[in-house]
């Protein structure tokens, strides 16, 4: 079942259940996927779908941080629900230990030895963890292991 099929199915379920939060989030995700399809001019591959979902998740997490800092608790609770809905469609996220292991393997693979090799390591690690790890976590893991 493709992502769009899953979204359409969940859209119907949310409508029948009168679940407004899930319904609006699924609609936004579907619109984002459809817009990306129009932009590229073809059906999205699974990697492209994960990229769209990751981008949507990142936007919500960034907003969550900003709203928390601004004391907007009314918006924070809604965003947390949206984040849970988006995470349902993403692959299982890697743990910190798994990220560290991948970073260690990559460092030895590319022969990195100092912080000057940061870009080389990040460029090699990110495609390996695409959609399964937050870039901030990978960034901090690379910095700590190179430093």
From TrEMBL:
Pfam families: YqeY (PF09424). GO terms for molecular function: carbon-nitrogen ligase activity, with glutamine as amido-N-donor. This is GatB Yqey domain-containing protein.
């Amino acid at each position: 079942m493709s992502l769009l099929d899953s979204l359409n199915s969940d859209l119907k379920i949310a409508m029948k259940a009168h679940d407004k939060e899930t319904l609006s989030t699924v609609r936004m995700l579907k619109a984002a996927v459809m817009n990306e399809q129009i932009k590229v001019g073809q059906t999205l591959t699974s990697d492209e779908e994960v990229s769209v979902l990751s981008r949507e998740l990142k936007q919500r997490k960034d907003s969550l941080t900003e709203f928390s800092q601004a004391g907007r608790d009314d918006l924070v609770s809604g965003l947390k629900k949206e984040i849970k809905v988006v995470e349902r469609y993403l692959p299982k996220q890697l743990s910190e230990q798994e990220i560290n292991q991948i970073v260690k393997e990559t460092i030895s693979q590319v022969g990195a030895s100092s912080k000057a090799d940061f870009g080389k390591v990040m460029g090699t690690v990110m495609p390996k963890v695409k959609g399964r790890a937050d870039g901030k976590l990978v960034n901090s893991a690379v910095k700590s292991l190179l430093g």
